[in-house]
Specification:
Length: 421
C-alpha cells in the first residue's frame, strides 16, 4: 500500500509542480517534462525489479523490503524539496528504484503460504494496491499548497515548498512502516533455501526478460494476448501525463479537486475488482468482460476533453467511472485469460507472466512520454489537432486492443473451470 501511495501521491500536483520549476528555468513545454517525470519512475522500477528479486534470494526478503521503505522515506522528501527539474527527476527515479521491490513482497507471501491460502493472500496485494491508489492521490491533492489553506503553515518551509507536505506525509508513512518491519517482520526466506544463482546485474536480467518476451511474442495465441496488454496499457498511461494538464487549463481544477477525481477512480476500481468481478465472470465469462472493459475504458478516455463545462463535476464523474469500470473489468479478466492460455499451451507460467510484465513496463514507460509530447505539439492548435488529441489517441489504442481481442478464442468447456478455480 505504501508503494502505491508513493506512486499516486504526486499525480494531483505533479503538473503544477513541474510548471513552477519549468517556469523558473524558462521552459514553456511542460508536457515533455511531465511525461519524463512519470517515465523515470516506471523505468527505474523496470530496471531494478529483477535486481531486488535476485538480491532477496541471496540475503533474504526482510532486508530488501526494509531497504525499499527506507529509500522511500528519503526520496519522497527529496522530491518535495526539489528546486530544479533535474533534482526532481533524480529524486523520482530513485523513488521508483526503491519502490521496485513489489515482487519481493509477493515472494515473501509465497514463502509463508501454501496452496490453501496463497491465492487469498496474493489478493491482499491487489487490494492494497487499490487502497493505496485511492489514498495516495487524495493525500497529494488535499495537502498541496498548505500555506494557502491553513495559517499554521504560513511563513514556513511548506510555504516556500508548496508540495513538500504530501511528500513528507508519504515519507512519514514509509518510516512508520520501516519501524514496524524492524520490530515485527520476521525473515521468511531461510538461509538453507537461499541461492546465489541469477545475476545481480540489471542489464543481464533485462537481457533475459527481453529474450523471454521475444519467445512468447512468437507464440500465436500468447503473442496476441501480450500485444493486447501492451495496447491497453499504452493507451491508459498516455492519459496519466495529460489528464491534469487538461483539467488545469480547460476546467480550472485545483490540486485538491484532481486528487478527489483520482480517489473516485480508485474507489470504483476497488468496488469492481474487490466485490463484483467474481459474479460478473461467472455470468459473462472473462473474454466478454475483457472486451466490454476495453470498450468502456476507451470511451471514457476519449470523452475526457468533451466534459460539459456547465455540469463539470457530474459529467467528469460519469467519464472517470467509465474509465475505472473499464479498467477494473479488463485487468483481472485479461490476467485470467493469459494464465489459462499459458496453461493450455503447456508453457511455463513464470516465463509468460514475466514477458507480459516486461511488455507492460515498456508501455508504461512510453505512454506518459507520448502523451506529454502530443500535448506540447497540439495544445495551441484547433481542429483535428487540439488539446483533445492525446485523449483521442488513448481511444485509438483501445480500439486496436479491442480488434486484437477478436482473435482470442473462447476457452474449451473442459478447461473453463480452471479460471474459477
Amino acid at each position: 500500500m505504501i508503494d502505491m501511495i508513493g506512486f499516486g501521491i504526486i499525480i494531483p500536483f505533479l503538473t503544477y509542480f513541474i510548471e513552477d520549476l519549468a517556469t523558473k528555468e524558462g521552459i514553456i513545454e511542460f508536457g515533455f517534462w511531465i511525461g519524463l517525470m512519470l517515465l523515470s519512475y516506471s523505468a527505474a522500477q523496470f530496471l531494478f525489479s529483477p535486481f531486488w528479486g535476485s538480491l532477496s534470494d541471496r540475503i533474504g526478503r526482510r532486508p530488501v523490503i526494509m531497504a525499499g521503505l527506507l529509500g522511500n522515506t528519503v526520496f519522497f522528501t527529496a522530491f518535495g524539496l526539489s528546486s530544479s527539474l533535474t533534482m526532481a527527476l533524480i529524486a523520482r527515479f530513485f523513488a521508483g528504484a526503491f519502490n521496485a521491490n513489489i515482487a519481493v513482497a509477493k515472494a515473501y507471501i509465497g514463502d509463508i503460504s501454501d496452496h490453501t491460502n496463497l491465492a487469498k493472500r496474493m489478493g491482499l496485494i491487489g487490494a492494497s494496491f487499490g487502497l493505496g491508489f485511492t489514498i495516495g492521490p487524495f493525500l497529494g491533492g488535499e495537502f498541496s499548497s498548505p500555506a494557502q489553506k491553513w495559517d499554521l503553515f504560513s511563513n514556513t518551509i511548506f510555504d516556500s515548498n508548496p508540495y513538500l507536505l504530501p511528500c513528507a506525509i508519504a515519507s512519514a508513512l514509509s518510516l512508520a512502516s520501516f519501524a514496524l518491519a524492524l520490530k515485527k517482520l520476521p525473515e521468511s526466506h531461510q538461509v538453507e533455501h537461499r541461492t546465489e544463482s541469477g545475476s545481480l546485474n540489471p542489464l543481464n536480467q533485462i537481457s533475459i526478460m527481453l529474450n523471454d518476451l521475444k519467445t512468447v511474442s512468437r507464440m500465436p495465441s500468447l503473442g496476441n494476448l501480450i500485444m493486447i496488454g501492451v495496447m491497453f496499457t499504452y493507451g491508459f498511461t498516455i492519459m496519466h501525463a495529460v489528464f491534469v494538464l487538461f483539467t488545469e487549463s480547460g476546467l480550472g481544477f485545483s490540486e485538491a479537486e484532481n486528487g478527489r477525481v483520482f480517489a473516485i477512480i480508485g474507489l470504483n476500481g476497488l468496488l469492481i475488482q474487490g466485490f463484483l468481478i467474481g459474479r460478473l465472470t461467472k455470468k459473462f465469462g472473462s473474454i466478454k468482460l475483457m472486451k466490454i472493459g476495453t470498450l468502456i475504458c476507451g470511451l471514457g478516455l476519449s470523452l475526457i476533453p468533451h466534459v460539459s463545462t456547465e455540469w463539470v463535476w457530474l459529467s467528469m464523474m460519469g467519464v472517470v467511472i467509465l474509465i475505472s469500470t473499464g479498467n477494473g473489468l479488463f485487468q483481472p479478466s485479461y490476467a485470467a485469460i493469459l494464465a489459462q492460455n499459458t496453461r493450455l499451451a503447456g508453457q511455463e507460467m513464470g516465463m509468460v507472466m514475466g514477458a507480459q510484465e516486461s511488455a507492460s513496463a515498456f508501455a508504461r514507460i512510453l505512454g506518459p512520454l507520448t502523451g506529454g509530447l502530443v500535448w506540447d505539439y497540439t495544445v495551441q492548435r484547433n481542429g483535428l489537432l487540439s488539446n483533445a488529441s492525446a485523449f483521442h489517441l488513448c481511444g485509438i489504442m483501445m480500439i486496436i486492443a479491442l480488434f486484437l481481442q477478436f482473435k482470442t478464442t473462447s476457452l474449451s468447456p473442459q478447461s473453463s473451470g480452471h479460471i474459477e478455480e
